Amino acid sequence: MNEWLEKTLKELNLVDTMDQPIGFTRLGYSVEELESIKAFKKVANELDLMVHSDQAGNTFARWEGATDFPVVMTGSHLDTVESGGGYDGVAGVLCALGAIKRLKEKGFQPKHPIEVVCFASEESARFGVSTIGSKSVAGILDKSVENVQDRHGVTIKEAIESTGLNWSNIEEAERPKNEIKSFVELHIEQGTQIEDHRAHFGIVRGVACPIRLKVKATGMAGHTGTTPMGKRKDALVALAPLITYVSQEAERLSAISSKPLVATVSTMEVKPNGMNVIPGYIELGIDIRSVDDSLKRQMADKIIQKCTILETKFNVTINIETLVDNPSILLDEKLTASVKAAGEQLGYISYEMDSGAGHDVMNMAAKWPSALIFIPCEEGISHHPKEHSTISDLQTGVDILTAVLQQEAGE
Amino acid sequence: MNEWLEKTLKELNLVDTMDQPIGFTRLGYSVEELESIKAFKKVANELDLMVHSDQAGNTFARWEGATDFPVVMTGSHLDTVESGGGYDGVAGVLCALGAIKRLKEKGFQPKHPIEVVCFASEESARFGVSTIGSKSVAGILDKSVENVQDRHGVTIKEAIESTGLNWSNIEEAERPKNEIKSFVELHIEQGTQIEDHRAHFGIVRGVACPIRLKVKATGMAGHTGTTPMGKRKDALVALAPLITYVSQEAERLSAISSKPLVATVSTMEVKPNGMNVIPGYIELGIDIRSVDDSLKRQMADKIIQKCTILETKFNVTINIETLVDNPSILLDEKLTASVKAAGEQLGYISYEMDSGAGHDVMNMAAKWPSALIFIPCEEGISHHPKEHSTISDLQTGVDILTAVLQQEAGE
């Protein structure tokens, strides 16, 4: 199995070695994502699975059961951020395929059909809109995003249609409630809690969905050499303290609360961004996460208050737009408990935790009993070329998924 | 004259009205700069001046004198920053042409030839390299800049050659010392000192050349939702205090020093700049100016010290590159005194000051007696669509330049 995992990991990542200093770039609905899906189809065919795609670009490899439905579903995604790692998403697809291989080798006969899914465009890296594929399957995609553009001006609609699909048919990707029994996703942790607690896998209770703010400050551009310090309306100087504040206040709030909170100024645009011009306009993107929605709201409100103070102090105009404000998602208690028990029966130590990152499972959980398994990734490094899970961690994932699928599909 | 100034101002700016909400964009060696030079040639021809260009793209409109040389030269530039104003550069060319018109109308016969110059590519907006035209005339252009690129990847060499010139001949633009008697530039102040001191024009003693630093911080990218606050190496959080420090320290140093100092974090690049990724890499551009070179050095040293503290505190790696470090330029005392006297004899109140911005005159001053006249621009707003000097200010400029040229070319 180890050899098969190593080989298939590289196949899904379209590389000969996982040592890629510039990382992996497979944006949603890009040629690179399609290539990776093609590699997935090849592996699925080798395992005698039937592959089909839907109108959102999701791909399913199906093992027929004694009954036609409901389906036991597992999987994740194959797209990445820019210069990301080779495990985020891929690990879940790979371990699902590995579990199928194991079950086939054991001669298991599923009662329920099993489907391994590759959800399309999970990352928000390209359009700022995440989990387009799984939202479509759950029937919760907001079609008003069709004209949201990537940084080259390509809209979501255009990107999807460039892969041969028809945007106006995307609703057809929705699956009826009675067609699916349960969904289990496996993903890399993208943090160090499993490692810190000397566990082997994480079992996730809730997914922290973000509040995302766009803070825009308008001051006054001017010549850097001729505008005295006291006469400036420098938008960058006005917002610099906000960067420090977001970091310090998130750390403070997190320390005094029962649930963790993280907040990040992650994007920034400076205009006109010329060496001899005072910055007249700044845009900051802020990402706030906690499974405790009220703590998240508290942090956002503090940022808004801080902006009011900075606006007056630095004589600039600050506007704040809320891009995203989704409540956090709790996963299915019964399924989660049974996944946890399955892992522990295999001798693995579990750690119960929350997920700071959004995953496809949060959309599936809106409609079907769903669970999320984390496997460790070294030093918590993710969305980075150095992202790495060991073959032993992937093996743990295969072991647990094998047990879970056997139980779910055999019942 | 007022009507002619208004009409010619618009002609040189290639517009029908100076009210341009998105400003003026004529980058160095662009099609737009060439169009403006074409408009200059038309006006020069109407004034019966002979126009010629050199191998650096500078354009000269010449009024022959009784002797062949040395030439009395005046003028400025026609290129702008992106979305800049219509007076920076243009005012100096316009007032020079206006002075010629006035002298011709008076029947003045110059002993020395007079040349009105439009120096090519004065602004650093396109390449980060300023005053390419006047450096070439003074013979101090560093030819190693040939491969410096604009943000579209076009090199200086390619840009110059796209206008029909040959980079390998650019040295031919140098003028021998004995060919030029003196150079007087008129420019908008780009500040409010003239206005603050209730004067009509500024007479400049020295030009503050910048120290420019590029500060690069490398931390570690990571997922914004899964990396606890205490485990981050956020490059943006590490450099945010530097933005505040540069502004506060410049204000403090300036207040306790005999010469003013300004310092600005003017450019910024954040990588990967994705909503769900912690900034792993930041680049800041810092522009420091004062005619007091030691004060400028002191500010740069303080920035370097501050970076050492931030590097340790935030566990990131900081590298600092010095892009530019030029000593400040003192203008010709005798010529400056005579320009000042000429203005005062016309009843205008002068204010002696330093220039925080670099101008073509600083290169000319390296070789020939040179002076710089400032006219006011409203509220000191410059490099901005709202940049504005009144027709009355331009008239003041014409009056003073007329007197100066009459004196310099008549002697």
From TrEMBL, chains A, B:
Belongs to the peptidase M20 family. PANTHER family: ALLANTOATE DEIMINASE-RELATED. It comes from Rossellomorea pakistanensis. Homodimer. NCBIfam families: hydantase. InterPro entries: Amidase_Cbmase (IPR010158), Bact_exopeptidase_dim_dom (IPR036264), Peptidase_M20 (IPR002933). Gene3D superfamilies: 3.30.70.360, Zn peptidases (3.40.630.10). This is N-carbamoyl-L-amino-acid hydrolase. Transmembrane segments: none annotated. The lineage of its organism: Bacteria, Bacillati, Bacillota, Bacilli, Bacillales. It comes from the Bacteria. Its EC number is 3.5.1.87. Keywords: Hydrolase, Manganese, Metal-binding. GO terms for molecular function: N-carbamoyl-L-amino-acid hydrolase activity. Its cofactor is Mn(2+). SUPFAM superfamilies: Bacterial exopeptidase dimerisation domain, Zn-dependent exopeptidases.
